[in-house]
């Protein structure tokens, strides 16, 4: 369970508790053991020293009178000392005087040299403690006593201590484990629950769940409460968002239905305009024509002229209807764009105007145009309109000049270059302050007797340009001419900008 | 009129347009016999010899000049019935109408119209158109059945 991934915080807490407790216990044990060893050794040395003094005092006269038996008796009293291994007395000259227990021929402990002024020395030698003390009599060194004692007892005690420490450690660990289960309940379990909840929510996106039974008012409790609160807020916001979304969706649907209805109506309208408006016009024109042809004798010259005017009016209105329907259709029509060589397009348009251009010996200056992505049918209408306007408005000009070309300019609101096309003439021109009226439907800057027209052409041109994402504008001066500028795409177009077609697939059959 | 051979069936609901068309046809002496139907239903009754035309002989016109916007049964429906019936399948039908809408032109050709002509507003052009189509369909064109 401690290695369970979701509850790893529990495992961590348990491990942490155990490590901290074990470290504290081990440190305490080590300190205690060290102190124990030191103090026990000191006590042993002190006890051994006292024994050595007693032996020295009792055997001083024996040394003086060279009576090893008496000294041997004194040593034999050491029998009572439990851990004693052996003891020897040496003469002042360093020869062995007597030993206990008496083991003849056995090698005895060697004497150690002791620094001047010192009367006693001791050393630990593996499992034994050896103490050496000078025997002084009447202020003079009379010999040396050497006692060796076993440390087995001490080691046994230390072992027992270690066993006790181990038991205590194990008991402590068990207690820590027990405590960590309590900790789990109070700390890690709530955290694990919180984590699990967060995981579920992020997986299932269900913000309606809440953490039940918040355990206490500590930081964890506050965290859980905040979590619940956050969920509630998200839920409220989600609800509001969903509602707003649904409302918008509904509104879009409603508008779409309305728009589609409007579009259908418009379509029906333009259909009936194209169909029903034409019939009476045809009748007006037709019967006027029959009158002027077949009843010529009965109608005088003025009457004949009026009949002609009636026919002309009907003709004009027919054109107007056609132009309007065309403009309406362009507004609704989808663009069919493809790479198109504008030079070819221009040539098609010029072919239609060829007769008048030649008859009036108009000076045509054609710049190289690029291949661009556009709806060729519609852009042809643009050129046709602008060029027929140029031809029309140079009618009274003695040396008419019409120029078509392109230039690279900085865009309207950007630094990026764009291709600007222009059609320039030196014809009747217009007053620059009426520029905005040029492109309005039915807006004309000239009288019909001067220059014929329906006032729909430039409005249609503007709509085509706008549908391509471009702009159109004009510059003019009365009597000097007009220049119409247009772009085809915001920020220029990427197909090519030379007169040569860059793409092989250039469509010529427009 | 009923026993005569009909060269043109003119289907037109608008009286004034009808008069203009007849004027143009007669002036150009394109056809001697023109039958007029004022709506789609009448046109079908004439072609299939039903109702008032049940006593008519079995001849078919050389061409049907068909307005598309008609009361009762509209022009496209008339065209559909003509093309679906074995007896009338081969009659040349010319749509002669005010509409220049692409969808009307497309629908007519899909139903098998032989020609689609928009009536020009200008009467001179209208007259020319009538003359040309009359000459072509009644005089020049050969039909697969005896008239």
Folded structure, characterized:
The complex is a heterodimer of chains A (510) and B (147). With 510 residues, chain A is α+β, with helices and mostly antiparallel strands. In chain A, 54% of the residues lie in helices and 16% in strands. Chain A contains 10 helices and 12 strands. Chain A has helices at residues 8-64, 68-76, 152-204, 219-276, 278-294, 301-332, 342-359, 376-393, 435-438, 457-467, and strands at 84-91, 96-100, 120-125, 128-137, 140-150, 338-341, 363-366, 371-374, 401-410, 417-425, 472-477, 481-486. In chain A, strands 2-1-5-4-3 form a 5-stranded antiparallel beta sheet. In chain A, strand 9 and strand 10 (417-425) form a beta hairpin. In chain A, helix 5 (278-294) packs antiparallel against helix 6 (301-332) and helix 8 runs antiparallel to helix 10. The longest helix of chain A is centred in the middle third of the chain and has 58 residues, at 219-276. Chain A is rod-shaped, with a radius of gyration of 61 Å. Residues 491-510 of chain A have low confidence and may be disordered. Chain B has a 5-stranded parallel beta sheet, sandwiched between helices. Chain B contains 5 helices and 5 strands, in the order βαβαβαβαβα. In chain B, helix 2 runs parallel beside helix 3. Chain B is of the alpha/beta class. Chain B is globular, with a radius of gyration of 14 Å. Helices cover 39% and strands 14% of the residues of chain B.
- Poorly predicted runs of 5 or more residues of chain A: 491-510
List the strand order in the largest sheet of chain A. 2-1-5-4-3
Q: In this structure, how is the largest beta sheet of chain A organized?
A: 5 strands, antiparallel
Low-confidence stretches of chain B: none
Number of β-strand runs of chain B = 5
State the distance separating the first and last CA atoms of chain A: 80 Å
Q: How are the strands of the biggest sheet of chain B laid out side by side?
A: 2-1-3-4-5
Anisotropy-based shape of chain A? rod-shaped
Count up the helices of chain A: 10
In round numbers, the mean pLDDT of chain A is 82
